[in-house]
Design goal:
Elements (H helix, E strand, L loop, with lengths): L75 H26 L3 E3 L4 H7 L22 H20 L8 H22 L2 E2 L7 E2 H20 L6 H19 L2 H8 L7 E4 L11 H8 L3 E3 L7 E2 L2 E2 L5 E7 L6 E5 L9 E5 H12 L1 H13 L11 H15 L6 H8 L30 H6 L5
Antiparallel strand pairs: 1-5, 2-3, 4-10, 6-7, 8-9
Helix pairs in contact: 1-3, 1-4, 3-4, 4-5, 4-6, 4-12, 5-6, 6-7, 6-9, 7-9, 9-10, 9-11, 10-11
Length: 451
């Protein structure tokens, strides 16, 4: 799957307010990309420092934007677009970090902040609290919390304004709920525990329930909207809610949601080369800087002797930057400006396969394979069918930020390539026993409700 976006405009003057809108031409879905979120000025502990051209409300005067300046219904769309931009930055950063942690990638860098992820070292508790803007950052906790905060802050503000003053009110609220849901979903899939708004630590299950509610709100508001893209936000939220319910073991809920998603639906996170926070970091860190290499588990994959086009990889025969790790390059995305799928009908179909099982699951697998002219799968053994479902997920959803959650969900059953590596990695560094990310020390130190 190769993805493109229209060129974006970016600021050339520090006094200019950036409101870039990315319109997708090749899919039903529409996402927006722009600079630093306006609502981020209100994020308190989550406030980040950015370059001049990354700020939506960048001005020459020192200091932060006053919260009162954002209490303006005319900024409703700007606030929501800012939340979307924060999520897109968090999404690509998180997918790199969790991909290194959960074996989509081998670290091929000499930098310590790469190597700790590649060996699942305990030090990850100090590195996921970084932002997603810098070149070597592997931010997870902080970027996702920032995206969640800006989305929910936008919702609260818009809900408090006179509906007559906010065009497309239901649509904007639906969009913000959907992105808040995905932020919480990714946090809950990756971390051992979650916490919100200086509250106590909560279980992953509690996080999935929170995400489920956000998606429910998004679906309801999208249904109430007449906006041209409301149906796309509804489908995006249905995929997200089905995924939250899959993590909760609610197969009836998965069936209800995933069956409503069109098979060819795709919703993208958009990227560009206008600033570091806008870049597709998978391409940057694998194909450009070569600080990570495709893990051997994803190299030379075939289906009954036929090369699998869903996992296109070039094994170069060379070495990465560390001169230790064999270099393999992904070929799914062409450039750092390529967009990444974040919610798709194909993911929904695979969730349906898991919910239904049996011949219904076999039929779904073969329908998806047919799009790539791959050989059909055949089995009547429930255990074998389940193993194939999770293997299809591994290949179909490669590099889409799903691997970490799946590793946690499936590893106990030891299903195929869903076992955590032990012993020494390719750099002779020992893997730790971690199989989920601990709440970051920065959060523990700042949050009085977490010991």
């Amino acid at each position: 799957m190769r993805i493109r976006e229209e060129p974006s405009e970016h600021c050339s003057n520090r006094n200019q307010k950036e409101t870039t809108v990315m319109e997708q031409r090749r899919t039903q879905s529409r996402s927006w990309g722009l600079g630093r979120a306006a609502g981020l000025a209100l994020a308190g502990a989550f406030l980040l420092t950015t370059a001049a051209c990354d700020s939506l409300l960048d001005v020459d005067l020192p200091g932060q934007v006053e919260a009162s300046e954002l209490d303006n219904p005319g900024l409703a769309q700007t606030l929501v677009l800012g939340a979307v931009a924060d999520f897109e930055c968090a999404f690509t950063s998180t997918s790199v970090a969790t991909g290194l942690f959960a074996d989509e990638w081998w670290t091929s860098s000499g930098l310590r902040n790469y190597n700790i992820w590649g060996s699942r070292n305990e030090e990850v508790r100090n590195f996921g609290a970084t932002g997603c803007e810098t070149f070597t950052s592997h931010g997870t906790w902080r970027p996702l919390q920032t995206a969640r905060f800006t989305a929910t802050d936008a919702i609260e503000r818009i809900e408090g304004w006179d509906p007559a003053d906010v065009p497309n009110r239901d649509f904007l609220i639906a969009q913000a709920h959907a992105y808040a849901g995905y932020s919480i979903l990714l946090l809950s899939e990756a971390f051992c525990e979650v916490a919100f708004n200086s509250g106590p630590a909560e279980s992953r299950e509690s996080g999935f329930q929170r995400a489920e509610q956000q998606f429910t709100n998004a679906i309801e508001r999208a249904q109430a909207s007449s906006h041209a893209d409301a149906a796309n936000i509804r489908q995006m939220a249905l995929v997200g809610r089905a995924r939250a319910r899959l993590n909760l073991g609610d197969m009836a809920g998965v069936e209800s949601d995933a069956s409503q998603v069109e098979r060819d639906f795709v919703h993208y996170a958009t990227y560009a080369t206008t600033s570091q926070r806008r870049r597709n970091k998978v391409v940057q860190r694998n194909n450009t800087t070569r600080d990570m290499s495709v893990h051997p588990r994803y190299r030379d994959l075939e289906v009954d002797g036929v090369p699998d086009p869903r996992v296109p990889v070039e094994v170069t025969g060379g070495m990465g930057n560390d001169n230790v790790t064999s270099l393999a390059l992904q070929q799914k995305f062409d450039s750092e400006s390529d967009d990444k799928p974040m919610a798709t009908g194909r993911e929904a179909q695979l969730m349906l396969a898991e919910a239904r099982g049996g011949q219904a699951a076999v039929d779904i697998i073969n329908e998806l394979r047919a799009d790539y002219d791959l050989p059909e799968f055949s089995s009547t053994d429930d255990a074998e069918i389940m193993r194939q479902i999770v293997e299809e997920r591994r290949r179909e959803l490669w590099m889409q930020g799903i691997r970490m959650g799946d590793m946690i969900r499936y590893s106990d059953a030891e299903l195929g390539e869903y076992t955590w590596e032990t012993g020494l990695n390719q750099k002779n560094e020992p893997y730790s026993s971690l199989t989920c990310l601990p709440i970051q020390d920065a959060e523990r130190n700042a949050n009085p409700n977490i010991s």
